[in-house]
Design brief:
By secondary structure, this protein is of the alpha/beta class. 45% of the residues lie in helices and 13% in strands. The chain binds D-serine. The site of D-serine (DSN) has 4 residues, from loops.
Length: 420
C-alpha cells in the first residue's frame, strides 16, 4: 500500500490500524470472514475503472470485451457450484438482491412471509422499517418458546391462513438448520414463491454441512462475503423460467452499472469454494461452533435452542445477570469481537438486548480448531464474570493477541508494518 501511504497517510494509517485490529483479535461476528489475498487483488483491480450497464453481450457501453468474459465466467461458476439453472452476480449486496426478488415476482402490497426479526430473521424479509415491510404486506413466523426452533407445522398453518405471495426462509441469528424441503412443499401448497436466503450458510451448503435449498426454492439469494468467503456482494440463483424477470429487476429495475471488480472477486471466491480445502473448511466451521457451544454450555451459558447445527451461537445472558451490550463491549476490550443481539421473546429493546451472537467462520479461516474454541469459551466466561474489571479485559486481550500470532490470516500484513 505504498501509493496509498504516500497519497493519503490519514486513510493509510486507519486502514493499517484496522488491519492490526483484525490480526490481533478473535473475530466472532458470524457474518464476517477473512478473504484470500487473491480476492483482495481482484477487488482492488483496474476493473474498478469500468461502466458496464446491461448483461454480457447486451451492454449499453462499448469496451466490454473482457468484462463480458469475466461476468459470464462468474455466472457459470455460480451455476456449477450450486447446481442452479441461472445466476445473476450483479446485486450490490443482500438487501438490494432481496428487493430485486420482490420487485420481480410480486405486485406492491402483496404478502411476504418471513421469519420475524426478533426471532433471528432479517430486516429485508418483511420487517416494518425496511422497504420490504413498507411496500409489501408482511406476515411472520418465528421460533417456539419451548425449543427455540422453527416449528414447520406452525409455518404451514400461518401460510394456509395468510396465503402469502412469497415465503422467505433464511436468518441472521438462527443456530439450527432450515428444512428447505418442507418450506418448498408449503410454498407449493399455498401457491407462493419460495425464496431461500442462504447468505449466512452458503459456505456450509457448498461444503455439504447444511442441506441445499436447490431444487426446492424458486429463487436462492446469497451474499458472497460471509461463510462463502468472498467480497461484499450477492448472487441470485433461479430457474430459467424466472431468469428474465430477476435480471430485469436487478438491472434496470434497481441498479445501474455492476461493480465489475466485485464480480471478478466473487469469481475468485467461487473458484476457491470449489476446492476440497474449502469443503473441509466449511465442515470445520460447524465442528468449531459445536465445540464452542459445548464448552459454553459446560460453563453454564444459556444457548438459544440449546446449541448449534451451523456456524452460529446465540447466547441469552439473562441467567448470568449481564446485558448483551455490556458483555459485547467488555469482550471487545478483551480482544474478542462479537455483537449484542436480541434473543427470541426478549423483554429488552433491540438497542440493548439480552444476548450476544457468536460465529466461527473467521476463526476457522485462520486455522483455529477445537482446542482454540475451548480457550475462547474460557475467556468469554471470564470476561462475563468480570464484566466491569478492565484489568481482566486487558490481560485477556494480551493472551488473545498471543494466541492469534500462531494463526495468521490473509491480507493482514505483518507485525511491525508501519502504521503511518
Ligand atoms: N448484517 C448481517 C449480519 O450480521 O447477519 C446480515 O445482513
Amino acid at each position: 500500500m505504498e501509493a496509498l501511504r504516500a497519497t493519503d497517510p490519514e486513510i493509510y494509517g486507519l486502514v493499517r490500524r484496522e488491519e492490526r485490529y483484525q490480526r490481533d483479535s478473535v473475530r466472532l461476528i458470524p457474518s464476517e470472514n477473512y478473504v484470500s489475498q487473491a480476492v483482495l487483488d481482484a477487488s482492488g483491480s483496474v476493473l474498478q475503472n469500468k461502466y458496464s450497464e446491461g448483461y454480457a453481450g447486451r451492454r449499453y457501453y462499448e469496451g466490454q470485451r473482457y468484462i463480458d468474459k469475466i461476468e459470464s465466467l462468474v455466472c457459470a461458476r455460480a451455476c456449477a457450484l450450486f447446481s442452479a439453472e441461472h445466476a445473476n452476480v450483479q446485486p450490490y449486496s443482500g438487501s438490494p438482491a432481496n428487493l430485486a426478488v420482490y420487485c420481480a415476482l410480486l405486485q406492491p402490497g402483496e404478502t411476504i412471509m418471513g421469519m420475524a426479526l426478533p426471532h433471528g430473521g432479517h430486516l429485508t424479509h418483511g420487517w416494518d422499517v425496511s422497504a420490504s415491510g413498507r411496500f409489501w404486506h408482511p406476515v411472520r413466523y418465528g421460533v417456539t418458546r419451548e425449543t427455540g426452533r422453527i416449528d414447520m407445522d406452525q409455518v404451514r398453518e400461518i401460510a394456509r391462513q395468510q396465503r402469502p405471495r412469497i415465503i422467505v426462509a433464511g436468518a441472521t441469528a438462527y443456530p439450527r438448520q432450515f428444512d428447505f424441503s418442507a418450506f418448498g412443499e408449503i410454498a407449493r401448497e399455498v401457491g407462493a414463491y419460495f425464496l431461500a436466503d442462504i447468505s449466512h450458510i452458503a459456505g456450509l451448503v457448498v461444503a455439504e454441512a447444511h442441506p441445499s435449498p436447490l431444487p426446492h426454492a424458486d429463487v436462492v439469494m446469497t451474499t458472497t462475503h460471509k461463510t462463502l468467503r468472498g467480497p461484499r456482494g450477492a448472487i441470485l440463483l433461479c430457474r430459467e423460467t424466472l431468469a428474465e424477470s430477476i435480471d430485469k429487476a436487478v438491472f434496470p429495475g434497481l441498479q445501474g452499472g455492476p461493480h465489475n471488480q466485485t464480480t471478478a472477486a466473487i469469481g475468485v471466491a467461487l473458484r476457491e469454494a470449489a476446492t476440497p480445502e474449502f469443503h473441509a473448511y466449511g465442515r470445520q466451521i460447524v465442528s468449531n461452533a459445536r465445540a464452542l457451544a459445548e464448552e459454553l454450555l459446560a460453563r453454564g451459558f444459556d444457548l438459544v435452542s440449546g446449541g448449534t447445527d451451523n456456524h452460529l451461537i446465540l447466547i441469552d445472558l439473562t441467567g448470568k445477570g449481564v446485558i448483551g451490550k455490556k458483555a459485547s463491549k467488555a469482550l471487545d476490550r478483551a480482544g474478542i469481537v462479537c455483537n449484542y443481539n436480541t434473543v427470541p421473546f426478549d423483554p429488552r429493546k433491540p438497542f440493548s438486548p439480552s444476548g450476544i451472537r457468536l460465529g466461527t467462520p473467521s476463526v476457522t479461516s485462520r486455522g483455529m480448531r477445537e482446542p482454540e474454541m475451548r480457550r475462547i469459551a474460557a475467556w468469554i466466561d471470564e470476561v462475563v464474570a468480570h464484566v466491569d474489571d478492565q484489568e481482566v479485559h486487558k490481560r485477556i486481550a494480551g493472551e488473545v493477541r498471543e494466541m492469534c500470532r500462531a494463526f495468521p490470516a490473509p491480507g493482514l500484513g505483518r507485525e511491525g508494518d508501519p502504521v503511518v
